[in-house]
């Protein structure tokens, strides 16, 4: 079925690569993530946002209900319930909900480990694992090209230029710059930066979470969207087909 016909009837479609599928239904996606996860308590502090707080009281997921907000998703950790920000990951309003929730799922799984040591290992790895090296290895595995260097700015980009990652050099930065946004993932049509969606991670964001977001670009999955939800500028890059509906069972003859 052609996409233009699907648009006429606004049919649900399976879209590949999913990272170009559009944001989807963010509120429904967050509700599905929270369903059955009793370690997350969520509330609406105002009419504009939903906040989920982990039982450790220092980790939060915030969704801005306004779909036009610059940064709609924010996942953050604080040093104490009323302490300083330790790290944050933000996703722009046009980012797929699946990308933000890939990070949330990885975080939730790590926090569920029984000991502090296991939690730290599943988030930050070991002393022998370097964040940049892990990220560069994943980009290389996906066949992405790399330019620049880690002392200034390193850029990794997919072969079709629809996805990439920029790492700003931070080895010489003072401690006061801990919350600078260092890692930026992006996706969108080649040659057009204005409709790109972005995910940004601060200097000390856990490597496991950056990799979880990166995997949505380097190991893309199909996502489901209604035809009208697929961004116009992305459609020429996508493979789509209608969602298969289950056939009704035949009524036995009498």
Please sum up the structure shown.
The protein is of the alpha+beta class and 254 residues long.
Question: What can you see in these coordinates?
Answer:
- With 254 residues, the protein is an alpha+beta fold.
- The chain has one domain.
- 25% of the residues lie in helices and 30% in strands.
- It is built from 6 helices and 13 strands.
- Strand 8 and strand 9 form a beta hairpin.
- The radius of gyration is 20 Å and the shape is globular.
- The two termini are 37 Å apart.
Give the helices and strands, then pairings.
Blueprint lengths: L2 H7 L2 E5 L9 H9 L5 E7 L2 E6 L4 E6 L6 E8 L6 E8 L4 H15 L4 H9 L6 H11 L3 E4 L4 E5 L5 E6 L12 E7 L9 E6 L4 H12 L4 E4 L12 E4 L12
Antiparallel strand pairs: 1-12, 1-13, 2-3, 3-4, 4-5, 5-6, 6-11, 7-8, 8-9, 9-10, 10-11
Helix pairs in contact: 2-3, 3-4, 3-6, 5-6
Helix/strand order, N-terminal first: HEHEEEEEHHHEEEEEHEE
Task: Estimate the helix proportion, in percent.
Answer: 10-25%
Could you list the spans in which at least 5 consecutive residues all have pLDDT below 50?
none
Using only C-alpha atoms, the radius of gyration works out to 20 Å
Category by helix and strand content: alpha+beta
Average predicted local confidence, pLDDT: 87
Number of domains: 1
Q: Strands across the major sheet, in which order?
A: 2-3-4-5-6-11-10-9-8-7
Per DSSP, the total helix count is 6
* First-to-last CA distance: 37 Å
Tell me, what's the shape? globular
Strand-residue proportion: 25-35%
Instruction: Please give the largest β-sheet.
Output: 10 strands, antiparallel
